Amino acid sequence: MTLVLLDNDTTQVVRRVPQGEARREAVLRDLIAEHPALLPVHDLDPSYGRLVTVTRELSIPGVGFVDVLLMDEAGRLVMVECKLWRNPQARREVVGQILDYARELSRYGYEDLQRQVSIATRRQGNVLYALAQEVGGTLPEAEFVDRVTRDLAAGRFLLLVVGDGIAEGTRRIGEYLRDQPGLAFGFGLIEIAEYRHTDAGGTEHVIMQPRVLAQTAIIERHVIRSEVPGIVFDAVDSAAAARPTGGATTSTASNTAPRAVTETGTRWRSFVERFATDTRFDDPGQPPPKNGGNGWIRVPLPDGLYINVWRSMNTGRMGTQVRFAGPEQRAAFEALLAEREIIDAEFTAQDLEPPSWEDGEVAQINLSMPAPQPWTDEVEAEQRRWLGARANQLVNSLRPRLQSNGREMAA
């Protein structure tokens, strides 16, 4: 396929860049993220408004990374997966991949999506709503959140596979989609052809031509969902059972008389209060930290697990720790351990050191560092920052996976 440029009396034939020599997948991804209007979304569904890029490389824990997540001003979501058609994955595997993203996303609540977007963008607050407002959104925040929540629950997305050309047999993708039960989202196969030409002044110009190759009608489905989240009861454990092994220790006293308030205890309560105030969790559904006793804080996780945030005067160290005791928690640890490389990479992506994984009698995930005294106000402020950053990332990495594992076990 060629283009012909007519400029007064001159005619220039512009030939297409051969498939396989055009932009690489990462470059194509970045091009779409920077210029979302390049996609012919309105040819697929005219009801979409102006598109804005939410983020590229959105992490869906346990599944992978969505190349680009887009949204219009009303919060309607568009997922984009980029593949060069010379790539052997460019047919069934890429479609299966984007369907996996959509299925997992349909299990999300608004807070889950907000958490993953905050991680990817490194912005806090209701990032989705803020982006919608930036492109002219007029919905009140509560109505916007409800709209996105309904779309998530119904699996109502637009899925786009974008490539640089047509490979043999790619039109059979429609047959593959029809074989998928419970399809509840629109799908589009988009080709973006690349052309290059050099003008009389020697300047090279690039022309991108998007076009829709195939699409499906949106299929509505009846979904039976449990809208009642699981209820977790905190067991009344002994302090010794819940206390981190490397953390602070306290002396044992009789339960028949109240303990005297010490200066150390007063200072620790102040530390906990400031930690709870200063620490910002990306996950808006994360319950607040709780004072677990002198020297440690509990940050709740699903399945009765906790992040133990601790500081020890005796050892001169501090850290964060998740302990997995009992058969069910042990099973949760094994599931997390299977994704260790991915979880470690999530820490390094946030400029944090990966945790240590201890597969002992009581499995543990730990991060710790020296905390020598004196603990001045300035030192404690830095300690809270260090501990808060790691507690936040543990929530980001572990909470969605534990929730997903819990859903699979309940199914």
Structural class, by secondary structure, is alpha+beta
The proportion of residues in beta strands is 25-35%
Helical coverage, percent range: 25-40%
Shape by Cα distribution:
elongated
Q: How many helix segments? A: 12
| Oligomeric status | single chain
The total domain count is 2
Number of strands: 14
Major sheet, described briefly?
6 strands, mixed
Determine the mean pLDDT: 80
Unreliable stretches? 218-243, 247-256
Query: Going across the major beta sheet, what is the strand order?
Result: 3-4-5-6-7-8
N- and C-termini, Cα separation: 51 Å
Radius of gyration: 26 Å
Describe this structure as you would to a colleague.
The protein has 411 residues and is of the alpha+beta class. It has 2 domains: 2-216, no CATH class; 239-410, no CATH class. It contains 12 helices and 14 strands. It has helices spanning 25-34, 41-44, 92-105, 110-121, 127-134, 141-154, 173-178, 239-242, 263-278, 327-337, 340-349, 377-410; strands at residues 2-7, 10-15, 51-60, 64-72, 77-82, 158-163, 186-198, 204-216, 290-293, 296-300, 306-312, 317-324, 356-358, 363-370. The strands form 3 sheets. Strands 3-4-5-6-7-8 form a 6-stranded mixed β-sheet, sandwiched between helices. α9 packs across α12 (377-410). The relative contact order is 0.11.
